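Box 3.1. Reading complex inputs
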Amino acid sequence: MQHLMCSVRPGVRVGLTIARGVSLAVGLGCSLYLGTASLVAGDDNPAAETRAGSRETSASRSEERGGSRESTRRNGSRTSKAEGDSPAAGLSAKPFSTGYDGQYGDLIGFINEQVRKGWAENGMVPSGPAVDGEWLRRVHLDLVGHIPDLETTEAFVADKSPDKRFKVIENLLNDPGYVRHFTTIWTNLLIGRATPQNISRPALQKFLRNSFGKNRGWDKIVVDLLTAEGHYEENGATNFLLSHLNEGAVPATALSARLFLGIQVQCTQCHNHPFNDWKQNSFWEFNSFFKQAQRVEHREYNEKTGRMDFSYFELTRADFEGPVFFERRNGVMEVAYPKYNGVEVSPEGSIDRRKELASIIVSGEKTQLAEAAVNRMWGHLFGYGFTRPVDDMGPHKVPSHPELLDRLAREFVKSGYDLKQLVRWICNSEAYNLTSRFSDGNLKDDPAAGETPMFSHLYIKSMTVEQVYDSLLVATNAHKTASGGWEQAESRRQQWLQQFVQTFGTDENDESTSFDGTIPQALMMMNGELIQNALKDAQGSTLHSVLTSPAKPADKAKQLYLATLTRVPSERELKTANMVMKNARSPLEAFQDLYWALLNSNEFILIH
Amino acid sequence: MNLSSLATSAGMSRRHLLKHLAAGVTLIPGLQFLQNIEANAAALKKNNKSCILLWMSGGPPTIDIWDLKPGSKNGGEFKPVSTAGDLQISEHMPETAKIMNHLSVVRSMSTREADHGRGRYYMHTAYVPNPTVIHPTFGSVVSYELGTKREGLEIPSFISIGGPSMGPGFLGMMHAPFSVGNNGEIRNASLPEGLGGNRLEQRLSMLNVVETDFIKNSRSQMPKDHQEVYKKARNLMTSQQMDAFKVNEEKPETVALYCGTGANAAGGAMGMGARNPFGMGCLMARRLVEQGVPFVEVDFGGWDLHQGVFNNLKTQKLPVIDRAISGLVTDLEQRGLLQDTVIVWMGEFGRTPRINQDVGRDHWAASWSVMIGGGGIKGGVAVGETDKDGIQCVSQSYLPGDIWATAAHALGIPANIVHTSKNGRPMKLADGGTPIKELIG
């Protein structure tokens, strides 16, 4: 074992243990600026290494490691001091804090209390807090849909203030990326990735962009989506219902219930729900609210072809009145009148049923609309919600944290359905700030194996196809060099991701992506055009600026690690990088190969 | 450019290359793929059982195809005709009628799930959807049971053509379907130009260090799965067996077998010309089975016929499947592969016996048909029966598990196999379904 001293950029010196006795200095030099120990991952991270409730283990480890741990502590950043006990898994007396000090302190305290209650009741020891790089990367992917860029990472590392996580959350909530990311998520939920024929994806996106940009209340957004009328490009909100009014509005019925109310009713169109209390008539009662929604397809004469071609869609209100008819399994026909949640609406033609439905849905101090939104947002941030899946709520599914869900839903209504507040509450809570590594005390907390999530560590998520695309742009700096505005960028992205979209060929426009962890994804990452472009030594690209910087090779390698994985390399990684460099024909090839490996790694494509 | 030609162009033998690499970096687990390069593809395939699933996405009206009800108010426009087997099928399936001695129809499916998503899951996995367990689709089960034992198979052991199929569930991403388009083109499968020397290995060894450290970090199964999938992707990039996907290189006579020809072309009415996607997909399935792939799914969507069902069937859907099914059976038989290849035809459910106001049929799971044959399964019979109007089963009824148990029996997968879900629950093969005795003789 060898102990090297490496010079740290601000002139401090940080100890680094080289476990396998190979000197780093050989080809790379060793001006290893570490910034903060909290960015070091892997087996060289004293923080991450320590396991649940094992003070002896951590003590003996640090002894075993010679002075490295101590010297890191002494010389290292504030982070390791302020989070002195953070690396150790186990329940600290005080919940981890992001430094949030605003009016919602009590509510965040309540979240912590409820989540901790779950740990205690299930005999679980939580993992320690995430190290800075791990957390910064996660919160970027979750809130703005891409990894942090190099400058952001370096600034975060350099920031020594105790409320730097809180500040990052605030910055991201005000970042255009937040608007873009949630627009992407909700466009995909509302009309899918494969845009239905003649539907205006750009117009729907514009509606969502404006709504999320102004942080309009979620209730107002949903009311607009449910009650929209007019020209499909002038009122982008119409595109949701326009996409789903086929088959007597059955898809619109099922999707509205699932997306806005978190209730799965699609099977009740044919029979009573086997588990929840939706009966077959409830489905058709809900369906009858959509019966006045009318999709008008305007056509115009095409002089060239002599045919009538599509001109535009209009969503109007038809003067539908009376009940809808449906067939019981025994063949008996029955009627259903507009009714939701016990509230009956007049079946007369003069009554605007969609407006009535919207007003029922948003009435009350705690609504199903709010519970569904809270559950979905929690699920978005943690990978799992309080029910599984997040959009299958109801009496048949007992939520994992009923009191927490209830309180959050009430507060969400009270806030005016303020989505940013919801994000703020959750992201500043203790649970969101934990590492994704298991500890010995929470191995059972594994929802991927079917267990009820207890949020005693973060669960790994796969990046979506959009997150990969956007992160590749950030990692390679291509987002700064590409031309065009929002819509051109969006159209390029759409075009690229269509290669992974597959539809099931049903009238309900359901689809899947062949993306998450598949061979086509691996092939794209290994050989695809996006990667090839990233590896070109083009002016303005990350690779170019790293290559042309005066830094030493080890610092260059470190920069590439920070730009892709938001951490510095371990000693073992530097050793391998060193070997790659020795074998390479040129520095360009060496750094291309290293960069390729980083972009292709599991660590890059997983949100952890 | 693939790796074998790389090695040659660099004037390096495989052994030399390996030696060279070993000197450079010691951590290169991805390298076993090099050993596969010289594997003799022709020697692989003898008495290897396979299964082809023809997936009719959207829910086909089997009352108009396999179990007609002449004389009933539900009977619709089509007439039944006699076949080479001991059963009648739709008049719009004339080519299939000629080879029906090889295929059988289970006419008393009763499957309960009449929603697309749930039905798709149930029919593919044999399990009813359950929020705490994700069950593997049967193709993944076959990949797990047979694919892993098929040494020398360098391409994925579960391939889905023209559609996504379903996921591998608790069996892991190693057994996920590899999804390709009907033209067999695979994007990004070749190394970029100029990646000479041992650069791929440099990259892979570097990648391996990062990945292995992340896996050791104990963060669930996903990081490990990622590494496994990369190994498969690398194998695929360098394999000669990829030629099996090149369906467009087939002789016109063979294509005609699956797609018809000239005025008879099945895709004509759909504006697809002589090479309709489903027919080409079935042809590709045969090429893949011939190469040793144990499970291939071919997707044919657009069956959600809530309106205009008869016109659509007559002019679009039935001509396509008639040609493709008969072509597949004929071709497999001519090549001596039919005895080793199980063919299953199904969708997520059937369609309502009652014809709706738009001359369509809606979702119906209570009484419908699945077609199965090949692989030694008895052909030419109809198993089970529905009543005169097709609204209920009047014989023993069957579940998807029974279909898959029958297929498993023919594939030589023991019925008593139990897989274990991630939370340790034992999962019976095909949800404990029973092989249908009329079909396994």
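In summary: Confidence is low (pLDDT under 50) at residues 1-47 of chain B.
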